[in-house]
Every structure is written in structure tokens, then in C-alpha cells.
# Entry
Amino acid sequence: MKKILVIGSLNMDLVAHVPHLPHPGETISSIKFQQSPGGKGANQAVAAAKLGGNVAMIGRVGADDHGQMLLNNLRQAGVDVTGIRQEGTTGMAFINVSKDGENHIILVPGANHKVSRADIDDSIHLIQACDFIIMQLEIPLDVVDYVLTIASEHQKEVILNPAPGQPLSTKMLGMVHTLIPNETELQQLTGMPVTTIDEIVAAALVLKTSGVARIIVTMGEKGSLLLNEELQVHIPAVKVIPVDTTAAGDAYIAAFAVGLTKGLSDSESAEFATLVSAIVVTREGAQLSLPTLEEVK
Ligand code: RIB
# Structure
């Protein structure tokens, strides 16, 4: 089976369920508190493994209880964790989830910001052995840039989730095969308006001129938009009542990659990813909400 390598972040999520997201200066009480495994990288690795993918991960957790819990969760899902270093303090994410499922996230990067070029060199065999590399932007940008260069030397396809959103150089974008931003990240990447589907298509087409072969814009309840060399297609979302949207984007990206490793077409993979993320928004938590392939079926 084709192999997926995730290079990215691992966080312990500290989640407060609140009646509404607080306004500046407002103090509110939570309805419920949960601590559970998260981090965009780890979420994507666990999601892909639970969907039947062959997955390894490179990253860092702290030498602490949070780190151990995150590693255990990855192992339990079947992820190869030999590329994850344990040192310092595990990253954390403070998350507020409102009654309608929307969230605010504040990151405390911890060990994620210590991921280095040397970590990548130490696990170069994982890059050599994989077919797809998935990355996000919760580790240093310099390391993401380094991996992009190595990946293009080894002719490995990189799927980049540019989250948290920030501008990227044309050189970096030129080494990305598949870019999967949400609307906000697309706006941050291009500086263009993204309020209508036409504006989103226009912004995505600008990114394609940098050499990105495939762009998928995830748009929440509006579904997703896939643009590749041959087609431009809008995949509507599955209608569900959202409970918590945390990790819905992560699950979409992982499911899309698993679809590709199983030989599905771009649109079939995007449809599969749409189903998976619909399940995720009906459940609480990041990794807690990720379904197995059996549950999706
Ligand atoms: O995408 C959701 C994730 O973003 C959370 O699990 C949190 O840890 C942050 O990385």
C-alpha cells in the first residue's frame, strides 16, 4: 500500500465548551471542559491511519505526560511514531467551542517550534519510503521549506495545509503539489477577497500560477472546491447539525490523501473526504471525533 508521511504538530487540546465565543473584555463560564489529543499534524496522521492508511509521522512532543498521551494515541491508531522526538514541553491548544460548533484556537507551540532540519535529516528514510508527504504550518516555516526542497529532490508529492494561514513565497508554493486551505487561509495567502464562490475561484487560480497542481478550498457548510489540471468542481457538504468543527479540516485532508493512496480519482477522494469531515463535525474533540473506515461505510 502507498505510504503517507505526516510532518507537523502535536498538541494537547484544552477545550472549554461555551454558550458563545467571548467578545473582547468579556468573561464567561464554560459548560464543560475536556482535555484530549490534538494538533493539526497528529490529527491528520491519526485520521489517515483510522481510515486504513499506512502512516508515519515526524514531529516533537515534550518529555511529559501530555507527550506520552499523544504518542499512545498515535500508536493505538497504528501510526509509526519512530520519527517523533520527545524533549521539552508538549505543545498545547486552548480551544473555545460554542453551542453551534464554531471555535477559537490559541496555540502554545512548545516542542512543535523545536522541530528542526536535523530532525528531518535523522528521519530521511521515512521521506525516502513514503509516497505522499502531508504538512501544515504549526512547525517552523524554515523546516517546511527544507522538507519541500528535499521532497522535490526525491520526487515526492507534498500536500500542504497552509494552517495557521500566512503568506508563502512563490518558491515554496512552486514545490507544493496539492494545497488545501480553508477560505480564511486562502485570503491570507493571496490577500484577495473570498466571500463568494467566484472570488474563491479567482484567488485559487492565482495560486495555481505559482505551479501548484491541485488546490482544494474547504468551505465548511458550503462544501469544498477542487481545481486541478483538468477540472474545477464544487463538492457540496453533507448536511449535518454541527456539534464541534475542530479537526474537520484535518480529517478532510487525511481522507483525501488516503483516497489517493487507494487509487481513487481527485473528485472521488474529495467526496470521500467530505463524508469523513461531516462525521467529524457531529462529534466533540479533535482526535476523539475521527472515524474509522468501518464507521464511514
Ligand atoms: O485543526 C485543529 C487543531 O488545531 C487542534 O487539534 C489544535 O491542536 C490545533 O492544532
In short: The pocket of alpha-D-ribofuranose is lined by residues 9, 11, 13, 38-40, 43, 93, 105, 138, 246-247, 249-250, 286 (CB under 6 Å). The domain at 3-21+30-296 is CATH 3.40.1190.20 (UDP-N-acetylmuramoyl-L-alanine:D-glutamate ligase).
